[in-house]
Design brief:
By secondary structure, this protein is an alpha+beta fold. It contains 21 helices and 15 strands. Strands 6, 7, 8, 9, 10, 11, 12, 13 and 14 form a nine-stranded antiparallel sheet that branches. A four-stranded parallel sheet has the order 2-1-3-4, with helices on both faces. The longest helix has 20 residues. The protein starts with a helix and ends in a 6-residue tail after the last strand. This is Phosphoinositide-3-kinase regulatory subunit 6. One of its GO terms (biological process) is G protein-coupled receptor signaling pathway. One of its GO terms (molecular function) is 1-phosphatidylinositol-3-kinase regulator activity. It holds the Pfam family PI3K_1B_p101. InterPro entries: PIK3R5/6.
Length: 654
Amino acid sequence: MYTLIQAPCIPDELCARVYDFCKRLLTLPKPFCTIGLDYASRLQLERAAPGTLYQRMVISEQSLHSAAFPCQERIFIFADPELLPEAICRALAMDTEAAQVSQSPRGCMSCVVTHALQAALGDTCDTPGLWARLQALPPRDLEHWFQQVVAAVEGSEGGSERGQHTARLERIYHGLMGSSPAGNDPQEGLQSTPLPSPNISFHLWTEDEQLWKELVLFLRPLSQSCEPECLGQELEPLEMPDPLPGCGCCGQSRFSVLSTDSGIERDLPAPEEPCERSRLHRKGGIKKKPSPLDSVALLQAGGGKAPGKPPGRAGVPPEPAAPLQRLHTARVVLLGDDRVLGRLAQAFLSLRKREARRVFLTPRLDLQFYHIPVVPGQPQPLAAEHTDPEELCEVAGYLGRADPWYESNISTLGHMIPKLATMPSRALVTDPFLTDVIAYYARMGTQPVCFQVHSVKVLFQDPAQEPAEDVFLTELLTQVQDGPSHRELSTTKRKSTLDGPGMDLTVTCRRVVLSKRQKELALSLRSTGLLMKAIPAEEAAGQGCLTVTITEIIRTSNLAGRSFSAVAHRFRTRSIKVRSSEQRPFTVRLDKDSRRTYRDVVGLEVSPCLEPSYCLQKTRTTKCSPEETEDVGLVKYLPKSLLLPINTFAGVIP
């Protein structure tokens, strides 16, 4: 499919054969039928108007102005500077910057015009002469012909015949070439038009809210909006009850005012009264209630209230708001190992909470995530306990087992990217290999694999300390905390001598058996710690369950004295509670990241993380009907669990 998009001209017979093959995939189970439907739709569009796929890809990736196709895309590469060596970050930044410098709007528009005319006219198109003609045009004339070609190609999508599409582009070709008729110059055959590199930006992930800020700036550039700080205030007034100062470039102020309006027209204050409510106006007529389907769509998109509308004049019904379209696509590529994906899970939950309070990004932005594993050549300080690269790249390993094409094209980059850091800078500029691979992955990786995000509630030894709430994606590790307090030191030594190493734990959960039924399980044992894995070691285990491994210390007595042995208990569960019976503290580390370690912990609760929009609507339903315990109304149509989608080429192949 990637070759067909870039091909200068596709023979009708070949296109028909591929289209029939994709239709036969529809009879197979997922993901084959999903891929077949996606590619069959693309081929049907390409057969009706040759060059459409190439044209749309370049226009959206380069953010070229076009009224006929006003879509924009951008690739955001995020790397954690504390997890990757500085040399790798520098090489990645240099590679992406070199790819952007080589692109220009003029060159991209010339590529679109050349490819569209060549795809429609075939051998009759004088490609070298056309390219030379485009390079000689002034910028305004080039943009004029570019808009003409885009309008002609997009107009053919409405169902017009192939012959009419060819005739329209042939007229544009003759008008562009002027007096030199087609076919007079010696033809050199079809020539491939290069596909420009997409718009890629490289970011060192240093702030927790950096992902959200970059997405907002993508929708509202600084040239059209405020600074990021002011923008955050404008987008989320519900978080700040105090009056928000107006933004200098917006010229508006937002206030949080307690309403005492009775809802009756005569109760409104007179215009001359110096009251804050005098600026409000009553809308005429009866307000139409939205349909349940509209409410479900809004809540599934992120919940919360719709963006506020300016009040209309009294007695004048408001104009119906046009439905929002997702004209922007953000492709976020995460470079690193499982630890950077743990940060992504935190940022994704924070973003979903913002959208639940006030939906803004979701109806306007198509957000997609990608992951490229990177294994540093030298072990980093934060990875001292995980020297095996496979232990730090469990997510990439699972994606590689699920999708062989991901394994052969993306997983192999984990060892190649560190080698690029040792190459001379001139070689990176002349051969942007990494940029090409990232562009191929972002363009063709359209099938998501969803991972369950788990929430954890941490209880501390100090009763005055509030419990902490966090999330993890890959694993949770608990270990006995070293260095007890002076008051407990003598008692701990004496007890350890009698009972052995470790601590007494009480574990309660609902165990998932082979039949996928849940069975109550309660354990009281002495253990040195436990490990919870959220990524299954094999595809048969399935997603959504935790694989818990508890190391139990068993004491045995014989003639030689007491001895201790370790026995590992392993089971699967969806939620679990752990308590330290003797209140001895232990540590909790999330997603193999030593920066996310909690100390002085005496208990924890782990369960699947819920979608914030579901929680918001569930709370509203409970307030209205406290006796209802099951999901009723709109709640039962909402996704309950928070799933993090990471794109691959084919999804999970059984």
